[in-house]
């Protein structure tokens, strides 16, 4: 029986897609590419011997970063309103709770006010005694 | 002219008989919400504020992180003889501005818990008792002035004060319960929003890219022998009583093995920081979920177990510390 021949040469890989790529997955993939490109910069730049080589390295990395950051900007527009709405709802909740606390104080204030009014009435009554 | 007549001092006993059923009804009414523990609510308010604060540090890139990343970007381009990438920097700015605007959600969450704490620690029910007694005294003073009699006995005024305190305590508990529901409903929405895969990627990937920019700039500076590794050597050896020698930098520059070893540690630390970003986000989401559970327990009158929540908050604080630590 012949053993399988090992292939050490680089192979071409293809990404099989099911045709349904979620925005989150796409953004994650673009980010992974830009992080990897930036991570490779120190080694790549230090190996460059000419300025044109460095220009090429930087331009390739910038393409990855721009692809990620522009996609990020687009997706942020989708989810931004959800955060605005949540912030607004929390703001309303804070106001409602503050109002409840105020209502508790109002009860005490009302009684104190009544006491003050009665004392005032007392001083006025003295004038007629 | 008809003279106004007031009940005689002895009529306090009558008032007492009238007030007793009222007191009974109030106690019955209060019984509906006695299970809610006001102190637990106050503690939950404090914990909620801590969660909001820790989440801000873990989810959003700080001004310092952002500035470091932008400076790294400028450094790469200037290093390669390129002009400052204005378009790229503008895009960074837009993304950072949009993400920073989302911080308001957590600022509002902190405000909500501040209001909740204030409600729970509100002393109005105690205050009303002395106010009622004060009111009784004022009425008596008035009556004594116009009629030379007292209308309310001391005990009647005190009972009235007790009743007012009970009413307000019951009302306060009811308000706390209503507020807890209000907060919990919003926390559920926030949790769903934060768990959205797209939102999660938006929050974590930008922070990761900023961190990688800085990490790469540090590695490039290191490759050119510009960084002194003595503090790192100190950290690796201080606990057993060593420190970097005065000629450490010269030795490192001459010895490739030592340089590679230290570079390995540096890369490990930088990589670790980037990996912590996703963990920090995940923990922030967990704390929101735990808060929801604690609110449910509070509303049901069950004892609150903060151990899990505090464990996550501690983890969050550790990650924040790790991400902002100056090695």
Polypeptide structure, described:
The complex is a heterodimer of chains A (129) and B (327). Chain A is rod-shaped. The model of chain A is unreliable at 1-15 (pLDDT under 50). Chain A has one domain (23-128). Chain A has 129 residues and is mainly alpha-helical. Chain A contains 2 helices and no strands. Chain B has 12 helices and no strands. Chain B is elongated and about 105 Å long. The interface between A and B is large, with 67 and 78 residues.
SSE arrangement:
The complex is a heterodimer of chains A (129) and B (327).
Chain A: H1 23-47, H2 51-128
Helix pairs in contact in A: 1-2
Chain B: H1 12-31, H2 38-59, H3 63-79, H4 86-101, H5 103-120, H6 124-147, H7 154-195, H8 197-223, H9 230-237, H10 248-254, H11 256-300, H12 307-324
What is the alpha-carbon Rg of chain A in Å? 35 Å
Fraction of residues in β-strands of chain B: under 5%
* Count of DSSP strands of chain A: 0
- Most extensive interface, residues per chain? A-B, 67 and 78 residues
Class derived from helix and strand content of chain B: mainly alpha
How do you describe this structure in short?
The complex is a heterodimer of chains A (129) and B (327). Chain A is mainly α.
Question: Which key terms come to mind for this protein?
Answer:
heterodimer; A: 129 residues; mainly alpha; 2 helices; 80% helix; rod-shaped; disordered N terminus; B: 327 residues; 12 helices; elongated
């Amino acid at each position: 029986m012949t053993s399988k021949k090992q292939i050490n040469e680089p192979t071409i890989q293809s990404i099989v897609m099911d045709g349904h790529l979620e925005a989150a997955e796409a953004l994650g993939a673009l980010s992974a590419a830009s992080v990897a490109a930036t991570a490779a910069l120190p080694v790549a730049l230090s190996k460059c011997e000419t300025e044109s080589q460095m220009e090429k390295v930087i331009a390739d990395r910038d393409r990855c970063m721009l692809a990620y950051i522009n996609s990020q900007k687009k997706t942020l527009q989708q989810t931004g309103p959800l955060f605005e709405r949540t912030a607004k709802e929390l703001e309303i909740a804070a106001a409602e709770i503050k109002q409840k606390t105020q209502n508790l104080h109002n009860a005490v204030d009302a009684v104190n006010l009544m006491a003050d009014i009665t004392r005032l009435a007392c001083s006025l009554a003295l004038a007629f005694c | 002219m008809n003279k106004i007549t007031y009940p005689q001092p002895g009529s306090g006993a009558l008032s007492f008989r009238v007030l007793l059923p009222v007191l009974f009804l109030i106690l019955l009414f209060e019984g509906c919400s006695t299970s809610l523990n006001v102190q637990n609510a106050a503690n939950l308010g404090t914990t909620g504020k801590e969660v909001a604060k820790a989440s801000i540090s873990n989810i959003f890139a700080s001004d310092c992180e952002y500035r470091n990343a932008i400076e790294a970007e400028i450094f790469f381009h200037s290093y390669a003889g390129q002009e400052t990438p204005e378009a790229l920097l503008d895009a960074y700015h837009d993304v950072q501005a949009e993400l920073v605007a989302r911080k308001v959600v957590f600022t509002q969450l902190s405000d909500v818990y501040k209001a909740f704490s204030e409600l729970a620690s509100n002393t109005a029910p105690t205050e009303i008792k002395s106010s009622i007694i004060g009111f009784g005294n004022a009425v008596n003073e008035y009556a004594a002035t116009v009629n030379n009699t007292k209308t309310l006995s001391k005990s009647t005024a005190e009972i009235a004060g007790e009743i007012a305190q009970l009413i307000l305590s019951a009302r306060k508990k009811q308000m706390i319960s209503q507020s807890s529901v209000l907060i919990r409903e919003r926390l559920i929405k926030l949790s769903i929003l934060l768990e959205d895969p797209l939102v999660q990627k938006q929050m974590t990937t930008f922070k990761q890219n900023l961190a990688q920019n800085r990490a790469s700039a540090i590695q490039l500076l290191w490759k050119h022998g510009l960084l002194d590794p003595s503090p790192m050597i100190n950290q690796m050896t201080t606990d057993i009583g060593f420190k970097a020698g005065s000629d450490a930098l010269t030795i490192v520059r001459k010895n490739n093995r030592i340089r590679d070893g230290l570079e390995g540690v540096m890369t490990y630390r930088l990589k670790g920081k980037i990996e912590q970003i996703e963990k920090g986000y995940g923990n922030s989401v967990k704390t929101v979920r735990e808060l929801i559970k604690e609110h449910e327990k509070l509303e049901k009158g069950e004892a609150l177990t903060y151990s899990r929540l505090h464990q996550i908050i501690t983890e969050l604080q550790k990650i924040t510390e790790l991400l902002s630590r100056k090695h």
